[in-house]
Amino acid sequence: MRIGILGSGLMGGKLGTLWARAGHDVMFSYARSADKLRALAAEAGNNARAGTPAEAAKDADALLLAVHWLRVDDVLKQTGNLSGKVLLTCSLPMDEANTRLVIGTTTSGAEELANKVQTAKVVSAFNTVPSEVFFGVYEARRKAKRPSLVYCGDDANSKKVAAELIRDVGFEPVDAGPLNIARYTEPLALLMGQLAYRGTEGPELAYRLERYPE
Ligand SMILES: NC(=O)c1ccc[n+]([C@@H]2O[C@H](COP(=O)([O-])OP(=O)(O)OC[C@H]3O[C@@H](n4cnc5c(N)ncnc54)[C@H](OP(=O)(O)O)[C@@H]3O)[C@@H](O)[C@H]2O)c1
């Protein structure tokens, strides 16, 4: 797939690198310096390039939105037309200090985003694990028991794309339902952050969902 990264920080930088290593064509965009984007692309290998948000979106099969909530409007403005595009979002609707969700219970950041870009196909994914786990999970991807990663969205084809991209970085995708389930997954992301950064296990914390045996 051709994947455009909108926001090339901790989340976008790591996921873009792993997708490039997994064989996808990746374009990193949206950082404070073009040098950083070029360095990220060089580090990620032959499948990766640096560009503007508009270039990243132009021929993309999927886009990852990975910016602070306060930067969403700016990056969308620079990206331009997203009509029909698969837009994976890991961006959480956090306040400026990153201490609390500014949206919740009756709607979610993912639904607000879908309202902003009504012609795009929004899927919420990747926000329920800290970025520190991505490389370790990717390295262990051939193991039988992979960590789970919940995702949700309203468009079946976009969810297939999301599931494939989740698998490609080493997680087992768990379809949590329609986009409004992000009302539950976004607070789950805060719980995971709480456990990862303030608990005793350090930031390398993923999770696995299991069914009880029959
Ligand atoms: N980090 C996590 O573990 C984690 C986990 C779950 C969900 N999330 C969510 O994922 C989203 C991204 O988080 P993150 O940790 O990846 O954030 P981040 O490291 O701060 O990355 C944000 C990106 O936006 C760029 N940016 C910020 N201001 C800009 C500006 N004025 N012009 C151009 N580019 C600008 C940054 O540029 P620079 O690279 O130059 O700084 C960076 O590349 C957030 O919504 C967060 O809530 C993060």
Mind sketching the topology for me?
Elements: E1 2-6, H1 10-21, E2 25-29, H2 34-44, E3 48-50, H3 53-58, E4 62-65, H4 72-79, E5 86-89, H5 109-116, E6 121-124, H6 134-139, E7 148-153, H7 156-168, E8 172-175, H8 182-198
Parallel strand pairs: 1-2, 1-4, 2-3, 4-5, 5-6, 7-8
Antiparallel strand pairs: 6-7
Bound molecules: NADP nicotinamide-adenine-dinucleotide phosphate.
Structure description:
The chain is α/β, with parallel strands linked by helices and 214 residues long. It is built from eight helices and eight strands; from the N terminus they run βαβαβαβαβαβαβαβα. The protein has helices spanning 10-21, 34-44, 53-58, 72-79, 109-116, 134-139, 156-168, 182-198; strands spanning 2-6, 25-29, 48-50, 62-65, 86-89, 121-124, 148-153, 172-175. It has an eight-stranded mixed sheet, sandwiched between helices. Helix 4 links the parallel strand 4 (62-65) and strand 5. Helix 1 packs parallel to helix 2 (34-44). The chain is globular and about 50 Å long. The chain starts with a strand and ends in a 16-residue tail after the last helix. The model has no long low-confidence stretch (mean pLDDT 95). The structure holds NADP nicotinamide-adenine-dinucleotide phosphate (NAP). NADP nicotinamide-adenine-dinucleotide phosphate (NAP) binds at residues 7-12, 30-33, 36, 66-69, 71, 90-92, 94, 127, 130-131, 189.
- Our estimate of the beta-strand percent is 15-25%
Question: Structural class, from secondary structure content?
Answer: alpha/beta
Mean pLDDT: 95
Helical content (DSSP H or I, runs of 4+): 25-40%
Q: State the distance separating the first and last CA atoms.
A: 38 Å
What is the 3D form?
globular
SSE pattern: EHEHEHEHEHEHEHEH
Strand order of the largest sheet: 3-2-1-4-5-6-7-8
**What is the radius of gyration?**
16 Å
The parts where pLDDT drops under 50 for at least 5 residues are none
Number of strands: 8
Q: Helix count? A: 8
The distinct ligands, each listed once, are: NADP nicotinamide-adenine-dinucleotide phosphate
The largest sheet is: 8 strands, mixed
